[in-house]
Amino acid sequence: MKNKRFGAAFMILGGLLMISLILNICIGSVNVPLKDIPGIFLKTGANETYRDIVLNIRFPRALAAAILGGGLALSGYLLQTFFHNPIAGPFTLGISSGAKLVVALVMVASLGNALKLSSWVMIIAAFAGAMVCMGFVILMSGVIDQMAMLIVSGVMIGYICSAVTDFIVTFADDADIVNLHNWSKGSFSGMTWENVKVMAVVTGIAAIGVFMMSKPVSAYEMGESYARNMGLNVRVFRILLVLLSSILAACVTAFAGPVSFVGIAVPHLVKKLLGTSRPILLIPACFLGGSVFCLVCDLLARTLFAPTELSISTVTAVFGAPAVIYIMIHRRKEKAV
User: Fold this and answer.
1) How is residue 176 annotated by DSSP?
2) Helix 262-274 crosses helix 312-336 at what angle (to 10 degrees)?
3) CA–CA separation, 101 and 184 (whole Å)
4) DSSP 275
5) What is residue 68's DSSP assignment?
6) What tens digit of pLDDT does each residue of 319-333 get?
7) What is the mean pLDDT of residues 255-280?
8) Which of 26, 114, 133, 306 is spaced 20 to 30 A from 48 at the CA atom?
9) Sign of the CA dihedral with 133 first, then 139, 143, and 145 last
């Protein structure tokens, strides 16, 4: 019975992913007919305008939203596992904001010196910022016993980093500052095939690494003492969790800016859908769920008030925040029982 539920859950996620991809490709300021999509990809007599819109703008953007959304959901799952806290995530712990700050500094420095940044430089800069904030949060976790206070500390770190970033963006002097401002609010716009290739490599390798850790994660969730008795080197394992979650969060921030609530909400929504917390099933399901969530939110962000485009974090917060509130209330009721 459970196997049927798991199979149905993955079929639902896979189906939603395909539908979301198609909708993101077809819907926009210029609607592309569904019947023309096969011809566009096969390059057999499709409208030239439609081909340019789909292959150069919408399809790379949709793939980026799917890849980065999946990576962000996995990052949130790893952080929840690391801190044993259901509302831990790259955004709430200030990790995304730290990555955003360093990337903004690098971008402004490059704009001022007329330098062109590669995707790899952006990821390295974001990773450096993410690791600094992650290190600070881990140090705080050694001082603060209550996890609620740790989350508050992470939020405060995020606010400080965001304030400094906004200051930098506001006073940076360059014609391209509009793009930097849009990025600092969170957006999947302007994605190129080069960006997609780099993020696919980084996120793909990290996701495979996370999946290979599914058995150690399962042991760690049973408690550190249990994990040690099973032969797990907890110290090395925790370092790997930090590195992988920071790489995934950094990759997302480098290309799309800070994206809120995906890393918190998606793992819990997927867990409800599957009806299990087994990592070997939850890890791939989280990736699929994050992809679907970000694709749907990105579609709404660019079409809801077209031609004005909302920041992606605005839409993800609308759907993600209620989910987080529900999680907190539900856990409180469970503890009361």
Assistant:
1) T
2) 50
3) 9
4) T
5) H
6) 888 887 887 777 666
7) 89
8) 306
9) positive
Residue 66: what residue type?
Answer: A
- In sign, the C-alpha dihedral spanning 38, 41, 43, 45 is positive
The set of residues, in sequence order, having a beta carbon less than 8 Å from that of 121 and lying 6+ positions away, is 106
How far apart (Å, rounded) are the C-alpha atoms in residues 161 and 134? 13
Per-residue pLDDT, 173: 61
Structure tokens at 297: 């939110």
Q: Do 199 and 255 meet the contact criterion of CB atoms below 8 Å apart?
A: yes
Place of tokens 């439609």: 50
Task: Extract the tokens encoding 194.
Answer: 């080069």
pTM greater than the 0.70 cutoff? yes
Q: Provide the token pair at 328.
A: 């907190």
What DSSP assignment string belongs to 149-190?
HHHHHHHHHHHHHHHHHHHHHHH---TTHHHHHHHHH---TT
SS3 content of the chain, % helix, strand, coil (to 5): 80, 0, 20
List Cα–Cα distances, 224 to 75, 214, 217, 234, 335, in angstroms: 20, 15, 11, 7, 22
pLDDT, tens digit, 9 for 90 and up, residues 197-217: 999 999 999 999 999 999 999
The one-character DSSP state at 35 is G
Q: What pLDDT sits at residue 30?
A: 87
44 neighbors 171 (Cβ within 8 angstroms): no
CA dist., res. 318 & res. 324, Å (int): 11
* Radius of gyration, CA atoms only, the chain: 20
- The yes-or-no verdict on residue 114 having pLDDT over 70 is no
Domains of the chain: 2-336 (1.10.3470.10)
